[in-house]
Design brief:
The chain contains 9 helices and 11 strands. It is an alpha/beta fold. The longest helix has 20 residues.
């Protein structure tokens, strides 16, 4: 019980911390959004931060209504770039009982938490949405929609009605699986790809075609991860020796 409570506090603390760092500029994300990201790209990320989405929205390449891989809002707009956040996002909230705060209501045992996250208006405003309707957090109980670090990651929530949200996570991961299967090139930036993250390792090391070009950009972990791809049978693996994501963006922003 204590561990569960602490993990709950950690999720809320992470959410608040990211809101505080929003005041800082994100030049690497801005460069990536403006100069590197192209229509049709799929960004698979295990980061919680939503600063990249803000920059992609600013350039007109991303829209929240379809850009997360599930529908948000009352009006659908196309999104040139898809951002699949496979460990959740700091701006996603799981709404309990549809935000009910009292009175009589009907509970669907299969979806007491809804079918996908909602977004707080403060976080919508950060992304650049001033007048957004539908799928926003209004009131009631809610908790951050995050898969927190741990030895084993459970992609569901254990409620009094049973396991919920497994379909939501599976839907995101299935889209990621389809994306890596059809990709000609995968760039892995800043992700350690440790054995504890077996689902991510299976996604990235087993599902892409072996002729897919792989570029690894992970600082002092680059060689280890590149060797993992080579061991998995990939034929074209490049290890970026210039540092991390920010350095890679500087190199690639001037390329055609």
């Amino acid at each position: 019980m204590r561990l569960g409570n602490r993990r709950g506090f950690l999720g809320a603390a992470l959410q608040q911390w990211f809101r505080e760092v929003h005041v800082r500029p994100a030049p690497s994300y801005a460069t990536f959004a403006e100069k590197i990201a192209q229509p049709g790209d799929v960004i698979i990320t295990f980061n919680y931060d939503d600063s990249l989405e803000r920059e992609l929205k600013r350039t007109g390449k991303w829209d929240i209504s379809q850009g997360y891989g599930f529908r948000l809002g009352a009006v659908e707009h196309s999104s040139d770039v898809l951002v699949l956040k496979l460990h959740g996002s700091m701006n996603w909230l799981v709404s309990i009982l549809g935000g009910a705060t009292g009175g009589a209501f009907i509970v669907n045992p299969a979806s007491s938490l809804g079918h996908h996250p909602v977004v707080h208006r403060v976080d919508l405003e950060f992304l650049g949405y001033e007048n957004f309707s539908g799928h926003t957090y209004e009131s009631g109980g809610a908790f951050p929609c995050l898969i927190l670090p741990g030895r084993t990651k459970e992609f569901f929530y254990d409620t009094s009605f049973g396991h919920e949200y497994a379909d939501f996570w599976d839907h995101l991961w299935s889209q990621a699986a389809q994306a890596v299967k059809r990709s000609d090139k995968i760039v892995l930036c800043g992700y350690s790809l440790l054995p504890v993250d077996q689902r991510a390792r299976d996604l990235l090391l087993q599902l892409p075609r072996k002729e897919t070009r792989i570029e690894v950009v992970s600082g002092n972990q680059t060689e280890r991860i590149a060797n993992d791809f080579k061991t998995a049978g990939f034929n074209h693996v490049d290890a970026f020796q210039g540092g991390y994501f920010a350095d890679w963006c500087k190199v690639n922003q001037s390329m055609p």
